[in-house]
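Why should sequence recovery work at all? Because a backbone constrains its sequence more than one might expect. Tight turns favour small or flexible residues, buried strands favour hydrophobic ones, and helices have their own preferences. The token representation captures these environments compactly. In the example below, the structure is given first.
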């Protein structure tokens, strides 16, 4: 293992790329699961029993909460690694993350806010579907 600042910087950058890929993969899997649940609940023939539909809708809420918490965890880790990347960049005289507006805190991250809004909207949809049953 390389303990030099350059070696650590390489590791930090690889982990940041991994976290970015993990966010994309998680969102992709979440969309696939949600689409599957929607198809099962609203388009299945013969029609499912009301209790089964309710359980699947509750499963939609739980799946959404699970993926949202995972997303928030990945964003938190990403922010921590960016702070370290900026520290290393100062030692190495690099300018990758330290040039970005808001570095290293990144208080305003529109993509993260949009993804959280997406999860909130889908939770609202599932809760509405539980309270007021409807068919497409």
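From this structural description, the recovered sequence reads:
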């Amino acid at each position: 293992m390389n303990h030099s600042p350059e070696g650590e910087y390489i590791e930090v950058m690889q982990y940041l790329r991994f976290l970015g890929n993990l966010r994309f993969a998680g969102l992709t899997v979440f969309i696939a699961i949600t689409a599957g649940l929607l198809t099962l609940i609203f388009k299945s023939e013969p029609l499912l029993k009301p209790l089964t539909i309710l359980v699947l809708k509750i499963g939609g809420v739980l799946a959404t909460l699970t993926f949202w918490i995972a997303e928030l965890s990945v964003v938190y880790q990403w922010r921590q690694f960016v702070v370290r990347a900026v520290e290393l960049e100062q030692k190495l005289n690099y300018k990758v993350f330290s040039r970005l507006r808001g570095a290293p805190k990144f208080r305003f991250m529109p993509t993260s806010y949009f993804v959280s809004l997406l999860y909130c909207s889908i939770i609202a949809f599932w809760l509405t579907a539980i309270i007021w049953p409807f068919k497409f």
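A few observations help interpret the result. The mean pLDDT is 91.
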